Amino acid sequence: MSRNLFSVTRAIFLMVWGVAFLIGLLHAPVLADPPVIDVWYGLDQSFGFIGNPQKWVNILGNVTDPDGIQSLVYSLNGEPDSTLSLGPDDRRLADPGDFNIDLDIDTLNDGANTVIITATDMLNNISQETVILAYAAGNVWPLPYTIDWETVTDIQDAAQPVDGKWEIENGAVRTTQIDYDRVLAVGDMSWRNYEITVPMTVNDLEPVGPLSGCCPGVGMITRWKGHTDDPVAGWQPKSGWKPSGGDAWYIFGLDVLRLSGSNLSYTMNLGQTYMWKLRVETPFPQQGGFYSLKVWPQGQPEPTEWVMTRQRPASDEPNGSLIFVAHHTDITIGDVLIEPIYSTTVSDDFNSCALNTSLWTIEDPLNDGSIMVNGTQVLLSVPEGEEHNVWGTTPSNFVNNTLRIMQPTNNTDFEVEAKYESGVDQSFQQQGILIQQDGNDLIRIELTYSGGLTSVFVAWFDDGIATLLPTVSVAPAATEPHYLRVKRVGDEFTVWHSLDGSSWSATHVNFSFDLVVSSVGVFAGNSENGGESPAHTAVVDYFFNNASPIDPEDGDSFLPPEIVPIDDQIAVEGVLETVTVIATDPNDDPILLASSNLPSFVSFADNGDGTGALTLDPQVGDAGIYPGVVITATDPCGLADADTFTITVETVSSALDDLNSGIRSDLVRSWPNPFNPQTNITFELRRSGRVRLEVYDLLGRRIVVLLDESRPAGIGSVVWDGRDQQGSSVASAVYVVRLETADGVKTQKLMLAR
Question: pTM for the complete prediction?
Answer without folding.
Answer: 0.53
